[in-house]
Specification:
alpha/beta; 10% strand; 665 residues; five-stranded mixed beta sheet
Length: 665
């Protein structure tokens, strides 16, 4: 191919310094030519499958199951390969084995009379599935994914077939020897894990891993060990990152939400947060609760609590809520540029007549008038006991080793946005004016808008979360983490206020509303999407914006596809707390070589039922956007990088052949 490409001597001499560096890696014509052949071959492979998930909110069992079944990809592969050759029950059992090999093996052994025969049949089937899911990758990429103990054997099985008469005995003998040497169980587990890994080439998490569900720490363990992933931070992720950075208002919010949903596992078991000081303080400060508004919502908790535990949690919930509003008030007063004075409500309490006056002057009765720790003359001042408690909680968060590991993973692999393969991913929104133009947002005294705003906020998060940073903006950056959680111009929030106080203390639901920003008023406008795509360097034709954050209420007829297909909102209620309002249990967006598929999921019952009864998540495709031709690696961002590398290598070949660079034989 290089023989048909001509470069002038002047072109080559202009790049000679770089070409000499490249020659260190490819010191001969043969080496450079081999790499060109390799790269050109890769460019013509089918594009790898990308999975997009958002708003997981601690639902670790459903999340892990979606990864295991690749949003139905594994089941589709099994159906394609075996069709009518297997009964539905057999295909279901094979899928369950692929998802949960260790657990399924134990069940099989309890019922199967002839394990050797079962092993032989199953190993042959798994090899066929593995051959199918690995077919779009290079041998090199597949080999890197292979488990070390079985690498050679799997390579042989993947690249041979029992249908080949010359290799029939060879293939079958490998299978037979795996069984007779007692390695069948371990080999099956390794094959199933390999199938899971190869079914998803890259994973995009479009925000909100944390809060509500019981296992955000388990999800983070899974993600941080995943082979290829990226994260676009959501406001709930930023809240936890802010807590680790030492923002006490963020810490109080994290605790309040956990107590509200009876979700203590992530705090105590996941991150080793000591809640005893909070429990002790709460029982002393609130010996009796005058209302049940702080009772935890245990409907969505997997933990069983005694009545005594529920009463203690309710007191802890109230105690940290009051502390939260005090700490938030201190931040708002210290940063008038936040423009959040309407959230200063503790000084608007009239405990004599049991009312509160909101920012618009309206007066409402309080559902709870017991505020023993609030000094009406200085309502945002912490009591000495609260100061001591906040310090203890602060130390517990910033010194959590497990939290440090997860936050640094979020910093390394996360950002406010990502533009990849003509898809622009960000969790919630871009601040806009009413006419759709980018809104200037004040960040530490300077205005930023659009892409520049998100780039600046990226820097600020990195500064805030680096413990011991000597950056002059560090303290202000730590404070700003709370604003990113709930500020009216935060791109992660996108609403005019977070009406937490009103939801707790005012019965009138009209006060609970949180007005959406202009982004959501214009979300169906293709012109707005084109403006955003262009600002982030993407073409307006064929590109998509992918968001989460706002649950799509499918039960009310809402559609996740916006702006003539340019924008996809894929938050469908992964969190159990949302499923009654969305009517489903989340979406997964799958982008493979044939195009886009938006997959809608029904609620996942449990890992236990998936293993014992073969109950998979019921998934339905709600959007198919197929391409006119199959997409290749050449059509991706990675492909464009490889094309540039081929160009450089062709220049190196030309330089060798003209004697501008000498081969190092």
């Amino acid at each position: 191919m290089s023989a048909h490409i001509h470069y002038s001597t002047a072109e080559l001499e202009a790049d000679l310094r770089y070409l000499n560096l490249l020659a260190r890696s490819f010191p001969t014509i043969a080496a450079a030519s081999t790499e060109i052949i390799n790269l050109e071959a890769i460019l013509n492979l089918p594009k790898g499958t990308e999975h997009f998930l958002t708003d997981i909110h601690g639902e670790y069992e459903a999340f892990q199951h979606v990864l295991k079944n690749a949003s139905g990809t594994v089941k589709r592969k099994v159906n394609e390969i075996f069709g009518n050759n297997l009964r539905e029950a057999e295909k279901k059992d094979l899928c369950t084995l692929i998802y949960y090999p260790q657990e399924k093996l134990e069940l099989v052994k309890a019922d199967e009379p002839d394990m050797n025969e079962w092993y032989e049949i199953t190993l042959n089937r798994l090899v066929k599935v593995c051959q199918s899911v690995s077919s779009k990758y290079t041998r090199s990429k597949v080999n890197k994914a292979l488990p070390k103990d079985f690498s050679y054997i799997i390579q042989e099985l993947l690249h041979e077939t029992e249908a080949d008469p010359n290799k029939h005995a060879y293939f079958n003998q490998i299978i037979s020897t795996i069984i007779t040497t007692g390695r069948a169980d371990a080999f099956i587990i390794a094959m199933c894990n390999l199938i899971q890994r190869l079914a998803i080439d890259s994973l995009h998490i479009v925000g909100d891993i944390y809060d509500r569900g019981p296992g955000a720490h388990i999800i983070m363990d899974t993600i941080c060990d995943y082979h290829n992933f990226d994260i676009q931070w959501g406001n709930h992720d930023i809240l936890w990152m802010g807590a680790f950075a030492g923002n006490d208002a963020c810490i109080a919010n994290v605790l309040r939400i956990a107590l509200r949903y009876g979700n203590l596992d992530t705090l105590e078991e996941g991150y080793g947060i000591n809640l005893l000081p909070l429990a002790t303080f709460a029982m002393e400060a609130y010996p009796e609760l005058s209302s049940d508004i702080f009772a935890p919502r245990i409907k969505f908790s997997r933990r069983v609590f005694s009545d005594t535990e529920l009463k203690i949690i309710a007191k802890m919930h109230k105690a940290i809520s009051i502390i939260q509003w005090k700490l938030e008030g201190q931040l708002i007063k210290a940063h008038p540029d936040y423009g959040m004075d309407d959230r200063l409500l503790l000084d608007k309490l009239n405990l004599t007549d049991g009312t509160v006056t909101l920012a618009d002057g309206s007066v409402y009765p309080l559902l709870d008038t017991d505020f023993p720790t609030v000094d009406t003359t200085d309502p945002y001042e912490l009591t000495p006991e609260e100061v001591k408690l906040v310090k203890a909680l602060h130390n517990s968060f910033v010194n959590s080793e497990k939290m440090a590991k997860h936050v640094y993973c979020l910093l390394r692999h996360g950002s406010f946005y990502l533009a990849r393969n003509n898809n622009l991913m960000y969790h919630a929104s871009i601040p806009l004016e009413a006419d759709g133009s980018f809104k200037n947002v004040n960040v530490l005294g300077r205005p930023y808008a659009g892409r520049q705003l998100l780039d600046r906020l990226d820097e600020l998060v990195q500064v805030a979360c680096r413990i011991g940073s000597d950056d002059p903006d560090h303290d202000c950056a730590v404070d700003y983490m709370w604003y990113l959680w709930c500020g009216p111009d935060s791109p992660l929030f996108g609403k005019n206020r977070m009406a937490t106080f009103e939801r707790y203390f005012i019965a009138d639901k009209s006060t609970h509303s949180e007005g959406k920003g202009n982004y959501y008023n214009l979300i169906d406008d293709p012109a707005m999407c084109n403006r955003i795509l262009s600002a982030f360097g993407l073409p307006t034709d064929g590109s998509h914006i992918i968001n989460g954050h706002v649950p799509v209420k499918t039960i009310k007829g809402e559609n996740p596809v916006k702006a003539d297909g340019k924008l996809l909102v894929i938050d469908g209620g992964f969190s159990r707390a949302y499923q009654s309002t969305t009517g489903i249990a989340g979406y997964t967006l799958v982008y493979h070589s044939r195009g886009f598929q938006l997959v809608q999921h029904e609620p996942f019952e449990s890992r236990k039922k998936a293993i014992e009864e073969g109950l998979d998540i019921i998934s339905n495709t709600v959007l198919n956007e197929f391409k006119a031709r199959r997409l290749l690696v050449r059509d991706t961002d990675k492909g464009r990088e490889l094309v540039a590398q081929v160009e450089d290598l062709n220049k190196l070949l030309a330089a060798y052949r003209r004697g501008l660079i000498r081969e190092k034989v």
